[in-house]
């Protein structure tokens, strides 16, 4: 994995092969952040990265100046890798080991952007549940944005807060906006 832009631009982060992750490709990540660069002031937002894995998205936000990033993942080895890498790079990343759905149900933390990259094989009901909990608990700040990364075979356009999607190879980013 490579950090695409910002203070850590070009830095390669090599995760152990045993981790159960599918990192966002550099091409997809670059496309996503080109879109976000025109919509957000990275230094002024708070981000929650759900199913954070090796932290590809979290590290990209931090590299671009986001001061408040929370990474949530249930896998012990992913959390261990995130902690080690954050310490090595001297980054302020809030790392939480938790099942994402448990975290969403229990947290009162709000964010300007919530990014979720669940396993592509997750049942459609689980993808819908992410959006439902975030909406019901009002976990996004005003004008907040939920982005879910998923396979091109997963269709989320039927969800009422769906706004748009962008496809990069087999990966799709679906954007959801909530009327607050």
Automatic annotation (TrEMBL):
This enzyme's EC code(s): 2.1.1.171
Record-linked PROSITE patterns: N6_MTASE (PS00092)
Name recorded for this polypeptide: RsmD family RNA methyltransferase
Pfam families tied to this protein: Cons_hypoth95
Superkingdom of the organism of origin: Bacteria
Keyword annotations from UniProtKB, A to Z: Methyltransferase, Transferase
Keyword Transferase: yes
A Gene Ontology molecular function term of the record: 16S rRNA (guanine(966)-N(2))-methyltransferase activity
PANTHER family registered for this protein in UniProt: METHYLTRANSFERASE (PTHR43542)
Statement: the UniProt record of this protein carries the keyword Acyltransferase: no
InterPro entries membership: DNA_methylase_N6_adenine_CS (IPR002052), RNA_MeTrfase_RsmD (IPR004398), SAM-dependent_MTases_sf (IPR029063)
